[in-house]
Structures are given as C-alpha cells and as structure tokens.
Amino acid sequence: MSNTWKPGTKAVHSGTRRSQYGEVSESIFLTQGFVYESAEHAEQRFIASGEDEFIYARYGNPTVKMFEERIAALEGAEDAFATASGMAAVSGALTSMLKAGDHVVSSRALFGSCLYVLEDILTRYGVEVTFVDGTDLAQWEAAIRSDTKAVFFESISNPTLEVIDIEAVAKLAHAKGALVLIDNVFATPVFSRAFEQGADVVIYSATKHIDGQGRALGGVILGSKEFIRKTVEPYMKHTGGSMSPFTAWIMLKGLETMGLRVRAQAASAMGIASALAGHSALEQVIYPGLDNHPQNELIQRQMGAGGTVLALDVKGGKEAAFKFLNALEIAIISNNLGDAKTIVTHPATTTHQRLPDAQKISLGITPGLVRMSVGLEDESDLIADIRQALDSIN
C-alpha cells in the first residue's frame, strides 16, 4: 500500500490479500480453524504467529484481517481489531483496559447501551465513572484527575447531536495521562480526523455507515499496535467478541462505496435540515451543519460537514411525533442509522426508553424528538414526504 494514496483508494485496495488464484473480489475464508504441517509447526504458531499465520477464527482470520488493515489505513491508525457488533467494540475497548479502582470521565449524552456499559457494568466491577456535559470544557477540566485512566465520549452525541471538541478534550486528558476513547459513529470514517485531533482509540459500529445497507452487525476498535494487540486482542479473543469472516467480507464491500454514500447522505441531510428549518409543526431542527447549531463552527473545523443524521423536535410531544412517524411514506421506522434507506426513530420510547424521564429531558430527549438518518433516496422526495407527514399532524 502506498502512503500517498487518498482515502477513496485506500477504501478499495488497502489490506488486500489474494490467494494463489488471483481473485478480484476478496476471498471469504469461511473456516473456524487452520491446519498445521506438523506438531512442531502447531507449537511454534501458538508461541508466535507470523503476519499471515492464523490459529483460530476467534483469534484472527484472513478475511477479517483484510478488513482490519483496510479500515486502519483509512482512519490513519496503526492497527485495528474487528468485533461482532458496535457495542462489542465499545464494551471491549473499555473493559479490556480498566480494572477495579480505575477512574473514567465520560460525557453524559450517550447512546442508551453506552450509558448502560458505563453506569451499570463498569461500576459493578469497581470502576469509578464521572459524567460531565461534554460540550463544557470547564467540566472536563474539573473532572479529569491525575488518576483518571480514560475519557470517553461520542464525537457527535446520539440522538441530540451535540458536538464534542476532540482536540480540546484530548489536551486536557493527555495533560493528566489519560487515554482518549471516542465513539465516532456519527462522524463516520469519511469525515473523521480523530487521531490527528488527539484520539488514542477510535470505535465504530460497522453496522452503520461501513456496511450501510442493513445487512450485518459489526464493530471495530482502532488504535496503536500496542493497545490493539496487547490490551484489546487478549481480552476479545478469550471473551468471544470477534467478527465473523462473512461479516468482514460484507464490511470490505461496504468500504468500497462508503465515501460516495456518506457524502451524498450528508449533502441530503443538509438540504433537508435547511428546508425544514422554521416549519410551524416543529419546535426546532437539530443539525450540526446548520448555522444556528451551537457547535456549527466546531463541526466545520472538526469534520467539514454536518453528517448524515438530523433530529426533529415535533410540537405536541409523543402523540404528535407518533402521528408524524406513521404518516411517512418513504422513511421507515427502525432503530438503525447510516443505512441507504432513510430511517426514523423515536428515541424516548426506543433507544433511550430505559432512562428516567428527568434524565431524558436533561439530555434533550424530549417526547417529541425524532432522530432521522438520511438515506440515498432523492432529496426532493424526502423533503416532500417529511412535509406531508408534518402537515398530517393537525
């Protein structure tokens, strides 16, 4: 691989391993184990496996390795470990490095399952977690201590689309010796410059934009070779959170078109948000690409685009939001995002339903809030569909 390749080229060619047959499309090595030439060979491989030597699919596989190397090249990371789901990546990255007595600082605006890992699982095993308003640098500075092991946040929060200043938080964390772990799903590998901006570990749910077509669950943890191979890999290979070879092949195919899809989706999201701003049926349109978003200047500097997701706060609360959702003809109701199809979600009753009402409101998850992941449909068709659905509320 050439270091001079642009991201689009890396997304198509990086990490390619061809068999003796010289296939064009990457091979799927659907095998759970590997054969050794002799007992001595098996012994040696368990002592130290070479670059293209594998032991067991839970430890590594040629197809999975291609995906890991390709996404690492695209993201600008030294190494990567592919996981069975996005939450396997989040929980694996955190749990593999933490022990009882460690301290973590996290933004409080997180996806429901991420909150569960931090609030319920890590604290159950003696990890101390402090939550802060991720957009308030003074809160980060006050919370990060000399014994803080890690900080964790979503670069763009789910579902209220708060944007965290990666570079500023990283400087505060590194000054105290803490690692910076980022769930970077909404930023996507297309717009991400997280490592350049100070991240130590970047996490993706590959289920979202990397696959992009609703086919498979997957995740990936990216970081230094030392962190991935000495911290993450031992934990993941023994606890069983590895990605399957077939899933890795799907993700490789997804990477080939991801740049085209994500840029088109982000452009449509900007067009839709602009068209709906000020609509009489909406309390507000939340989209980082809009000039009125509190972190618009930051998102332009950090990513250069507003992303593929927007949020609509429908007047009239849950009842009106449900009428709006049920009246949509193109957008589908589901709880995924980053798909080729436009997907709408009511976070208060689905992804964040377990949170107490007071916590939902403090996070900006109102009864009328609808998260919209913009797909690849015609932008004008989507705008017309959303407008007719809003008009149907009354």
CATH topology heading of the largest domain: Aspartate Aminotransferase, domain 2
The radius of gyration over CA amounts to 21 Å
The counted number of beta strands is: 12
CATH H-level superfamily of the largest domain: Type I PLP-dependent aspartate aminotransferase-like (Major domain)
CATH hierarchy: architecture of the largest domain: 3-Layer(aba) Sandwich
The H-and-E topology, N to C, reads as HHHEHEHEHEHEHEEHHEHEHEEHEH
Mean pLDDT: 95
Describe the structure.
It contains 14 helices and twelve strands. The chain is globular and about 75 Å long. It is an alpha/beta fold and 394 residues long. The strands form two sheets. A seven-stranded mixed β-sheet has the order 1-7-6-5-4-2-3, sandwiched between helices. Strands 8-9-12-11-10 form a five-stranded mixed β-sheet. Helix 1 runs antiparallel to helix 3. The N and C termini lie far apart (58 Å).
Keywords:
Aspartate Aminotransferase, domain 1, five-stranded mixed β-sheet, alpha/beta, 394 residues, 2 domains, seven-stranded mixed β-sheet, Aspartate Aminotransferase, domain 2, 14 helices, single chain
Short description:
This protein has 14 helices and twelve strands. The protein has 394 residues and is an alpha/beta fold.
Topology of helices and strands:
Blueprint: H1 7-13, H2 39-47, H3 62-75, E1 79-83, H4 86-97, E2 103-107, H5 112-124, E3 128-132, H6 137-143, E4 148-154, H7 166-175, E5 179-183, H8 188-191, E6 201-205, E7 219-223, H9 225-239, H10 245-276, E8 282-286, H11 296-302, E9 309-314, H12 317-327, E10 332-333, E11 343-345, H13 357-362, E12 369-373, H14 379-391
Parallel strand pairs: 2-3, 2-4, 4-5, 5-6, 10-11
Antiparallel strand pairs: 1-7, 6-7, 8-9, 9-12, 11-12
Helix pairs in contact: 1-3, 1-10, 3-10, 4-5, 4-9, 10-14, 12-14
